[in-house]
Amino acid sequence: MNTPPPAPAPEPRRQPGWFLALFALAAAGGAVAYVPLLTVLLPQAIADLQGHEDVAALAQVSFLGAAMASLANIGVGLLSDRLRRRRPFIIAGLIASNILLLMIGRAETLAQIIALVMIWQVALNLMLSPLMAWAGDCFPDEQKGMLGGALALSPALGALAGSLVTYAGLIDPPARLALVAGLVSVLVLPAVLLGKGRVEPTLIAPATAPAEPVPLAERVVLRMWAARLLVQVAEGGMFAFLLYWLRSLAPGYPENGAANIFSLVLVGAVPLSLLLGRWSDRHGRPIVPLVAAALLCALGMLVMAAAGSLAVAIAGYVLFGLAAAVFLALHSGQTLRVLPAPQHRGRDLGVFNLTNTVPGMVMPWLTVLLVPQFGYAALFVLFAGLALASAGLLAGSLRRA
Prior knowledge:
CATH topology of the largest domain: Growth Hormone, Chain: A
Order of helices and strands: HHHHHHHHHHHHHH
Distance between the termini: 39 Å
Number of strands: 0
Helix content: over 70%
CATH class of the largest domain: Mainly Alpha
Largest sheet: none
Strand content: under 5%
Shape: globular
């Protein structure tokens, strides 16, 4: 007697638009938690304590904090995988990171700041790591493009939050970190509280027999990891030295000018990412927008390397910045699609998170070594080469996507 074949697993349901929007806001809450602190408030707090701008102290805090973030993201992801729970971690991380934000504002010594920032990074990743893994538990593959597009909101709101909390006369400096904590809570809590029951069982079922050979699947994941790392190196270098480069072309270029360009690029990337994410979902071509964005990153960098005027330089940066922001947002969504083992999703995303933290630890030192010797043009040509390599890696994955 022939045994009938097992019934196919039900297709995971598409998530409604309201939940996609709330999740995008929650992810943006993570950026609001760290962008204002690390880019504006922490450097100012160190300067207030030391009596001057202490670049070495800031570099030490940033390096140790990034190292803790890297370890915590993997560790918390692994723990949330084992317990098969995400939302309790997110809420616990939100509460702990907000409390530590307020404590950082009251630190009285540099040693206290260093210790608190390191602990805060652990608490922050207690929220961020399971938050991204939760997205993989909820959103099916045919929504990964739109999910990635929506994630472009994160850096945009992070930059806007940095401008908001430091806007002259809007809020007293001692209350700025409290405002950040409040904004993070408002952004994160709705998705977590209203998202109960959104996990799709078929998306969290352990993978026992992968549909494609394991070595092939592993190569696709490795290509995705390396491609993101290469673009992140270029993006991180530009983030750190944009103002200095513009002033090398136009001495006295104002700080708010660079900040405004950076914010406008991130805001402009949101609709572009959503459009391209929707296109990739409808046409089933998840990797094509990533390849195109990486190529445009390289083109923007080459324009910047050849720029002889401020206008051309800014145009090149806008092209690069838009392409990089679109690439990183869409890549985050498609990473969830290619990870082979749902039972290890949190851990694996922690490994992918190294592409975010490692460049921030090494790029400033590489730039300091390269620019004085060869100039910014050489740095941009190097970055263009990295972006081209990223496009090549992803193009090799097109047949496997």
